[in-house]
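Onboarding guide, step 5: your first structure request.
Type a short instruction followed by the sequence, for example:

Predict the 3D structure of this protein.
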Amino acid sequence: MIELAGFRFGELKPSAFDMPLGFKTGGGIIFGNSGGVTEAVLRNIVNVKSKGVDEAEQFNFIRGDNGLREAKINLFGREFNIAVVYGLKNARTVLRDIKANKMKYDFVEVMACPGGCVGGAGQPVYTDLAIRKRRAKVLYENDKTMELHKSQDNPYVQEIYKNYLEKPGSQKAHEHLHTCYEHKRRFREILEISDSAQQDDCVKVNVCFGNKCISKGSKEILKHIVNFAENEKYRDRVDISAAICLGKCSNGPNVRVGEKTIKNCTPQMVEVAMREELNKTIK
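The system replies with structure tokens like these:
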């Protein structure tokens, strides 16, 4: 699309963002690093509730490099437990502990990318952790140079609330600024059989459900595999699952049977591979 539009980045002249997106506060800048959202929220709370402390550095104990950081803070006579997480593996750990009542948090920040947006896919790929740390350092240095450090002090944000969103937490603000997530059941309804494998030596069959593989028929292959296992009475001997991506998308659809990955897979090819693997398990 960039090439078709005729853009040549080397020839583009620097320009500012369109307003109001071109105006920012320090609280908005530090969003790019893990812990930045939490720090911006705390700046907001202290400002709104206690009408005072506006030191940009007062919450720097939130900052750090660890993928899971915990902190306690006393505000308004109460102790609050905070968790700052990056990486979905760490997020899974936190969720598991919360569900098991092992941990209780009042606020949890989660970023998928390593270190936050500074280590994300929207940035040039870094080969040295020091590069990511330098990116984060620059954000906090920029924060110090800003006249405004709190997101809620952005005059354009204030104007939007005054003229349209009414007030923070209003029904209109909630409708436009918040979202929710739900399981889309992309393939779960097909995989009820996968929960029925009982034997330790069952054959594992993994179907790629990346976008390219789906476009090439992996969903139909998955349905075929489930029906094949049912019809051949392999229900308790196969463990069928789906993966977001098995790699090598250009060779899709890809299906892994045991340790073998079948490229450009067809229903017949996976049937043959499943029979071969099943025969190996017969004693």
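Each response can be followed by summary notes, for example: The chain has two domains: 15-177, 188-281.
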